[in-house]
Amino acid sequence: MGYFPFVTPSSSGGFANPMTTLGDLISGGSGGAAQRLAVGTNSEVLSVVGGVPAWSAAAAGGLAPSGDTSGATDYANITGLLTLAGAATLQAGTFYTDATIMMTNNQAITGAGVGETILTSATDVVLIQMGNEQSDHIMRNWMRLGGMTVNQTGGTQTHANVKIDGGGRGTTIQKVSTGGGKYGFELMDLDRCYFEDISANNPGTAGIFLEVGFQNTYGTCTFVNCDAVLSNSNTYGWYTAPNADQASPNQLDRMVFIGCMAFKTSGLTGCIGFYDTIGMTSANFIGGLWEQNNRQFRTDGTGSTVNFLGCTFLDSTTTCTDIAYLNGSGTFTFRDCRFQQATNCFNGVSGSPSVCLEGKNNNQGGLTNLFTGTFTSKMGTDTVFAGDATLALGLNNQRFGLGFIDSLIGNPVKIYPSADGSGAINFLKADGVTVVGQFNTTTGAFTLATPLGIASGGTGQTTAAAAFNALNPNAAPFNGKVAAPAGTVSGSQVMMGCGSVCAYTPTGSGLVSVTVTTFLYNATATQSDIIGPRYGTGSAPANGAALTGTRWGCSTDPAVRPSVVGASETLPVAFTDVLSLTPGTAYWFDLSLLSGSTSDEVFITNVSMSIIELPAG
């Protein structure tokens, strides 16, 4: 490296140093004369302004907007950066696009901030799409979008502003605001994703659409300080539903919403703050705000488990009909929440949901009905909010809960009421209201509200005779006789036509004991004949019909050979079995024969069939 020696100005015309202060520089002035360039301020960079060196503010990094309102230039520039570098940093200003900007694994788009960087389109398209799982069936990881406003301005808006189609681990959207569009954010098939400070404004259908698509996976997602603001009637702040191609959607699972909001501007109708159509296996709303929606929360799913902790439900416009419109089964827990101004606080529309009130909820007034509709149970500890005897059966407005016990251990075990009487100890259904049994601690008698049915170990009856008949519902025993069916010379087994007489319908256990006896002989010579028992349902086969039905009484049809010829000396044959039949179904029972010689007829005679339905056990 070279160096410049220190030069001292001299009176003899040598070089005169123009620098006077620490950090000064020497630059060439007019005619190349040395002049002082004073040091700049912190963060400034040396640049050229008007052809001479000068200190100036550092230029902003990233891509600047092109000014092309057609959208073609900005679209090409942004997608080009994603292709080349996997990331696009956008300066402040307005960018335009005429097509969907597609992102994939590990790609990122970052702006200068909400309201600073604006991406807009008058074309009816998704402006930014992260992943394309519905087509390529691949979940994309670590996609990132942040720091911008995304708007649709066209007259026709049938797409989302921002869409995730298969967001895998690490995919995130932070500090993004949307305006217009069918959906502000359409978030499909998410797994371990994170969202913070996203805001959906003025959507045509829903602000934030949580959509179950091809992957049928939705879970372990967190939303922090996210909101939806409604400015159109019949729209939803948050919305869960399946994609049109997903006929059997799985429920959302392990969802957390922290400090999120759903707000409706005044003068609108049919708006729902959070509308769940699928059901959520596990969802937790913490510190959320639902304000002025016509229905604050609605679910149509089954078997949901949803918890609200420290949430606020407000309506200063007196248009809210339901705070919790529960149109499906599940358990919905509210702890330390605030409620204000609604026709119904908890509406059990269908599915008999359960509501649990815990902690100290706050009724701020204007609630016409605390509970309406049908609930499996109303439980919890907050009897101050719910009122005395509302949560199961409280005593003297004391806070209480439900205890679940599978074992009582002691010697002795003691269970006793505060006072004796006929209803001192009650046994209730899960609704906490319906009494199924009472123990009279004065007389020691136990009484069931309804006689215990047979399936539960009782008789369902109140008299001994009726109880005996109830415990013995089997059909009466049967014996049928067929004297002499027509014989056969067939070389294949045919039916003997006994089923029209030997028929039986079990009515109780269906466990049936069947025994048949008969006598077999040949007309002209001793032959090795085959005989086999059969049973079946429907029309009984006629004599000589082809072999049909199910074999019983033997594993294979036996070959038998009379020792002599003629009806005077016959061979006895018997079959017995225990069959499991369907109660209420009619069955026929028959025998089949095969002659050992097609020139010698074989006969059976004196057929006797006995059938008895046995007790279950």
Query: What's the shape?
Result: elongated
CATH top level of the largest domain is Mainly Beta
Radius of gyration: 43 Å
Helix fraction by DSSP (H/I, runs of at least 4): under 10%
User: Within the CATH hierarchy, at the fold level, what is the topology of the largest domain?
Assistant: Pectate Lyase C-like
- In whole angstroms, the N-to-C terminal distance is 104 Å
The oligomeric state is single chain
Strand percentage: 35-45%
The unreliable regions are: 1-8, 393-401
- Would you count the extended β strands for me? 48
Number of domains: 5
Put simply, the count of helices is 4
User: Major beta sheet, specifics?
Assistant: 20 strands, parallel
Describe the structure.
There is one protein chain. By secondary structure, the protein is mostly beta strands. It folds into 5 domains: 1-59, no CATH class; 63-260, Single-stranded right-handed beta-helix, Pectin lyase-like (Pectate Lyase C-like, 3 Solenoid), CATH 2.160.20.10; 294-392; 425-471, no CATH class; 478-613, Jelly Rolls (Sandwich), CATH 2.60.120. The chain is built from 4 helices and 48 strands. The chain has a 20-stranded parallel β-sheet that branches. Strand 37 and strand 38 form a beta hairpin. The N and C termini lie far apart (104 Å).
